[in-house]
Amino acid sequence: MERKLNAASLQKIDEIVAKHRGKAGPVKLMLHDVQRELGYIPVEAMEKIAEASGVSPAEVYGVVTFYTQFTTQPKGKHVINVCLGTACYVKNSQALVDKAIELTGANINKTSDDGLFSVDATRCLGACGLAPVCIIDGRTIGNATPQKVAEEIAAIRAAEQAEAAEA
């Protein structure tokens, strides 16, 4: 894997590892903290967490890849999660994914070239009664339609343009 972290990111990882060293079950706690601070979990973090926890880097990587909330790639500034679980899929959540890809330029589980959007397809978001469901920037949108997704993306783009104009 490619290594490209700056000194500030490496220092954050060291602080997180030191905070959890010696505690029971620290791997997931450290992974959550690293992802919260950096937005993803780089290989350097996995190696430091493994060393501090007394497990192999492969075991830490296994935890990272098992849990869908963890990512090894930087996410876009705005994250769109679309559920493709059974309840959502039968209510046409694929159309939500298609609309998000069309409007953002980000492919499934990837980030747009401008770094603004990530589109993630998930298996279940735990809101089956609201199917189809997507989460945009942490906000759950139940009974979602391609039109609702388009409106949310348009609002994000407008806010980004307003912010850029003020800068």
Looking at the overall shape, the CATH architecture of the largest domain is 3-Layer(aba) Sandwich
Give me the secondary-structure category.
Answer: alpha+beta
Spell out the helices and strands N to C.
HHHHEHHEEEEH
Report mean pLDDT, rounded to a whole number. 89
- CA-based gyration radius: 18 Å
Percent strand equals 5-15%
Low-confidence stretches: none
Query: Percent helix among the residues?
Result: 40-55%
The level 1 CATH classification of the largest domain is: Alpha Beta
Strand order of the largest sheet: 2-3-1-4-5
What spatial form do the alpha-carbon principal axes imply? globular
CATH superfamily of the largest domain: Glutaredoxin
Distance between the termini: 36 Å
In terms of quaternary structure, the protein is single chain
CATH topology value of the largest domain:
Glutaredoxin
Q: How many DSSP H or I helices?
A: 7
**Total individual domains:** 2
In total, how many beta strands? 5
Query: What's the main sheet like?
Result: 5 strands, mixed
